[in-house]
Task: inverse folding
């Protein structure tokens, strides 16, 4: 007796709805649905909206920045250009900002300050570099002290220059004006007075050095060193006048 095989129908064909798609399968419109729009015509709930009717708007593509038409300079060339520009700025003479320094009527004190400014700037830059090489707190303290003093000296000189540039007269707050006046007084002294002045200056220098050696007031050391330098400058001028 032959075994009859009973045909099993898919469940979707029994209930009259299309089979569930597997994988990425696009639905085809059912009979009676409009192919062009797929919406509002017939009862095709499986119809796919067109591109124009899609609620999802395509995202704008990120625009890549336009490449610069000029090629960047090599690193070595940029470094050289920056170094040359810095050198040019550092070598710019003060006479461009303060033309009175080139005038024959410029007060000699201001010309002395111009030379002192170069020294103060060099000392400042040297201390700034040395600051990163300090290994002890004492070295840091001494270096910072030198850096600050030369910075203040540089600013005080600029203050004198700016005042003379604006008003045409001397401000006279810098110590160089007092030192210059003392040198002028030495030039009017007799030989006997110069000899007495030399002995007095030697005693002053010895006393200030003794105060520094005691080291009882470290915060006064920079000021005492300045006083020694001033006295030594006067002593050298006295010796020069006595020998001339």
Result:
């Amino acid at each position: 007796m032959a075994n009859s095989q009973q045909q099993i129908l898919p469940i979707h064909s029994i209930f009259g709805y299309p089979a569930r798609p597997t994988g990425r399968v696009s639905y085809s419109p059912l009979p009676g649905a409009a192919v062009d729009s797929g919406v509002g015509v017939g009862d095709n709930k499986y119809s796919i909206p067109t591109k124009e009717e899609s609620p999802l708007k395509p995202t704008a593509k990120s625009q890549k920045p336009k490449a610069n038409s000029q090629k960047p300079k090599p690193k070595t060339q940029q470094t050289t250009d920056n170094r040359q520009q810095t050198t040019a700025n550092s070598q710019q003479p003060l006479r461009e900002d303060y033309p009175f320094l080139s005038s024959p009527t410029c007060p000699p004190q201001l010309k002395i300050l111009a030379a002192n400014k170069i020294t103060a700037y060099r000392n400042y830059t040297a201390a700034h570099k040395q600051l990163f090489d300090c290994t002890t707190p004492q070295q840091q303290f001494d270096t910072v002290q030198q850096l600050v003093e030369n910075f203040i000296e540089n600013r005080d000189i600029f203050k004198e220059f700016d005042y003379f540039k604006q008003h045409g007269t001397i401000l006279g707050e810098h110590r160089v004006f007092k030192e210059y006046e003392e040198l002028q007084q030495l030039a009017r002294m007799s030989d006997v007075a110069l000899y007495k002045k030399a002995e007095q200056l030697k005693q002053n220098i010895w006393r200030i050095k003794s105060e520094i050696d005691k080291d009882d007031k470290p915060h006064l050391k920079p000021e005492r060193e300045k006083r020694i330098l001033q006295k030594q400058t006067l002593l050298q001028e006295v010796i020069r006048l006595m020998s001339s």
About this structure: Helices lie at 11-15, 75-90, 94-97, 108-130, 137-167, 175-187, 191-214, 221-243. The chain has a mean pLDDT of 75.
